[in-house]
Amino acid sequence: MWLNFHPLRSKALTLLHGYNRQDKFIVCKETSDQAEKFWKLVAERKPAVIVTLDEPGVLCLQDASAWPSELNSATSFGNIAVTLTLDSIERKNYSIETVYNDETIDVHHLTFSSWNDNHTLIDAKELVDLFQLINSIRSEERVRDILLFDRNELTRSGVFCSMWNLVSRYNVEKKVDVFRAVKDVKDTLPNLQINIENYQDCYLCMKEYMASCSIYANFS
């Protein structure tokens, strides 16, 4: 099931249901007033993981202050206070407190930047490794949604979701259908631009995954 969803009435936001019904991807792209809306979205949807999809060295939100950088120091975005609680090479963790209902949630932030200029993968294995890390985090957090942030008109988000669903379908059906996986994503993101190299990347991703099945046997 794939469903358009605009929680903040913004064309920059879409919800995708993955192959497994518990898999939900909140896909958003940058807008000029993104920061406060972005953290409001996080507070409302409570994703387990935020994944930013961009080139190395490119800040995904226009305002550098949109990502709190001082450890254990809260930054306010309207009625939401965001605190950086972990800053490591592998991930960042944020604690998010909403003033209006005194609720606190913890969110993991990962960055995947292994892209060429034409939005193809530099290393498919890195993406498979990222999938495993995300799956591990979501298992600890009782699943919860994945929020994808993509500055590039959702192209990389579409590739990411297609590959995730390829792996999920393979685990259940032992089938690899790249065209079906991409079509399912394009049904929800009709403006998604996928080139022949992206299709090839999907096959490479599956090749890496199947070669590593003994390592990633718990991915579901």
Order of neighbouring strands in the sheet with most strands: 1-2-8-3-7-6-5-4
What's the pLDDT, averaged over the residues? 80
Task: Specify the CATH class of one domain.
Answer: Alpha Beta
Q: In angstroms, what separates the terminal alpha carbons?
A: 17 Å
**Order of helix and strand elements from N to C terminus:** EEHEEEEEHEHHH
**How many helices in DSSP terms?**
5
Helix content: 25-40%
Q: What structural category do the secondary elements indicate?
A: alpha/beta
Tell me about this structure.
With 220 residues, this protein is of the alpha/beta class. It has a domain at 13-154: Protein-Tyrosine Phosphatase, Chain A (Alpha-Beta Complex), CATH 3.90.190.10. Helices cover 34% and strands 22% of the residues. It is built from five helices and eight strands. The protein has helices spanning 34-45, 124-140, 155-173, 178-188, 196-211; strands at 13-17, 24-28, 49-53, 74-77, 80-87, 92-98, 103-112, 146-150. Strands 1-2-8-3-7-6-5-4 form an eight-stranded mixed beta sheet. A hairpin with a 6-residue loop joins β1 and β2. α2 (124-140) crosses α5 (196-211) and α3 (155-173) packs across α5. The two termini are 17 Å apart. Residues 1-10 and 216-220 have low confidence and may be disordered.
